[in-house]
Specification:
The complex is a heterodimer.
Chain A lengths: L1 H21 L13 H12 L2 H17 L9 H17 L3 H4 L2 H25 L7 H34 L6
Helix pairs in contact in A: 1-2, 1-3, 2-3, 2-4, 2-6, 2-7, 3-4, 4-6, 6-7
Chain B lengths: L1 H25 L3 H31 L11 H40 L2 E10 L8 E4 L12 E3 L4 E8 L4 E5 L6 E6 L5 E6 L4 E6 L11 E4 L13 E9 L8 E6 L8 E7 L35
Antiparallel strand pairs in B: 1-2, 1-12, 2-5, 3-4, 3-12, 4-5, 6-7, 6-9, 7-8, 8-11, 9-10, 10-11
Helix pairs in contact in B: 2-3
The chains are: A mainly alpha, B alpha+beta.
């Protein structure tokens, strides 16, 4: 059952990845912009069980590592997104206060997006990837969080509906 | 409980796989490069298509407003108008790219560089805290890793990765970008480092002479002209720290290139036979004097009413 659902979800992830690389990347957005793949994966994770969340996090991270613009070593995004997916699902899944309302999910996604970026900078520093000055990092983190806050409410209904269709879930925000 | 155990086991397996991938990449295993190359080869046509389709939209975003009129004639005129506007914007876009290309050819021609021109098809996401672009020419056009990339004003970056029909360029504004620089005239040498913005920091290697505002920086060049050819304009000094107690002089530099407007770039596939020296130092704009108009008035003998 899990394999069937994940195989249905795979093309959706690939489409989101193509949108990110071919469309979103065309715009040099102020404040660092946003990653639709990260927002999608985190939203998907909060709506899914821990097992599914870990697998989709791993898959999304793997795709992000495939991107030619990934600065760190291959596997860095995979590890971070895997842990983020698992953690967000572990905390959020099954909690009606989070899953039952859209604001709860948006809050979770925005915070998780910020933590993912901080984890990326911190692990990048350990692996020898330069990320710029502290001020520059802080500005980018702030900008990305604002973008996530603006974009998540627009995309959440679409993402939750897709999730509901694939997982036969009644939850559709 | 059984489910929880299974989830934890899956998590451990995936974590080990991720760490395995990181280790393989850090050890330089070719399989990982193959993954990335394959991914880029697949993505390249999508990026080209995205760039072609979104080129007018990028500029059109703020201009287009949809009016809810129903009359056929108005709709037709609006469509025609939008089409003309789009054509005009495309034309403006083409003109801007032509101007950039002309600048690059002038620069490369003066120095005697052999170049390959390329269009920017994607700007790297800042999500990875790196400053990169993707161009639409790759190894099929003779581009190799570690070649200098020029804009119309000077340095744009360096080729980081090459694929058959595209290449990833690390912009000079990236924090990991380093280039050997020399000051035009005094020939003082130092190392220029990107800061993530259009400004960069320069650290001079000796304290014998002082650096001052307005000094122009050029690239020093590398062995066999890779990664950097000599004589490429980098930027100019905006502020200098010449404090007496400092071990080495430092300065803040502003790049000539505006990295957010890059549309066309050129990759230097072969440098000139001789060092161009200071030949590429940009000419300072001259102020054209405005002639003063002098009016002679002769008073009339009788006052006018």
């Amino acid at each position: 059952m899990l394999t069937r659902r994940l195989s249905i979800a795979t093309p959706i992830f690939l489409i989101i990845y193509v949108i990110q690389e071919a469309v979103i990347s065309q715009f040099r957005l102020p404040g660092g912009g946003f990653s639709i793949l990260v927002i999608f994966t985190l939203t998907w994770a909060v709506l899914s069980e821990t097992e599914v969340a870990a697998v989709v996090g791993f898959a999304a991270g793997f795709l992000m590592d495939l991107s030619q613009t990934a600065a760190g070593p291959f596997g860095q995004w995979t590890l971070i997104m895997l842990l983020a997916g698992y953690a967000i699902s572990y905390v959020g899944y099954g909690d009606d206060h989070v899953q039952g309302n859209a604001i709860g999910i948006i809050f979770f996604v925005v915070i998780a997006n910020l933590l993912v970026e901080i984890a990326y900078v911190a692990s990048g520093a350990l692996l020898g990837v330069s990320s710029g000055s502290l001020i520059q990092i802080l500005i980018t983190l702030f900008g990305m969080s604002i973008w996530a806050l603006l974009i998540s409410p627009i995309l959440l209904p679409i993402f939750s509906r897709l999730h509901a269709i694939i997982f036969d879930s009644r939850l559709s925000l | 409980m059984r489910n929880g155990g299974r989830a934890r086991l899956l998590l451990v397996i995936l974590i080990v796989t991720s760490l395995f991938l990181i280790t393989l990449d850090l050890r330089g295993v070719k399989v990982i490069d193959g993954f990335k190359q394959g991914g880029q080869t697949v993505m390249s046509p999508f990026q080209r298509a995205g760039s072609a389709v979104l080129s007018p939209v990028k500029n059109f975003f703020s201009d287009v407003t949809h009016l809810g009129r129903t009359r056929n004639q108005i709709e037709k005129l609006q469509a025609e108008n939008a089409n003309l506007k789009s054509k005009l914007i495309n034309r403006k876009n083409a003109d801007a790219q032509l101007k950039q290309l002309k600048g690059i050819l002038d620069l490369a021609g003066t120095a005697g560089y052999k170049i390959v021109n390329a269009k920017v098809i994607s700007h790297g996401s800042s999500q990875s805290f790196s400053q990169t672009i993707v161009i639409d020419s790759g190894s099929n056009a003779g581009i190799k890793k570690n070649m200098t990339v020029l804009s119309q004003y000077g340095i744009a970056g360096v080729v980081k990765d090459v694929y058959p029909t595209s290449a990833l360029i690390l912009l000079a504004s990236d924090p990991s970008f380093r280039i050997g620089a020399r000051i035009a005239g005094t020939q003082q040498i130092g190392i220029l480092t990107g800061r993530g913005t259009r400004s960069a920091s320069l650290q001079l290697l000796d304290n014998s002479t002082t650096v001052k505002e307005g000094d122009v920086l050029l690239s020093r060049g590398s062995i066999a002209n890779r990664p950097f050819v000599p004589g490429v304009p980098l930027g100019y000094v905006t502020s200098a720290d010449n404090s007496a107690g400092a071990v080495a002089q430092t300065a803040t530099i502003r790049y000539y290139t505006n990295f957010s407007t890059l549309g066309v770039v050129a990759v230097v596939v072969s440098g000139s036979a001789s060092n161009p020296g200071d030949a590429l130092v940009p000419v300072k704009p001259r102020v054209t004097p405005i002639p003063t108009v002098t009016v002679f008035v002769t008073p009339s003998p009788t006052p006018t009413k």
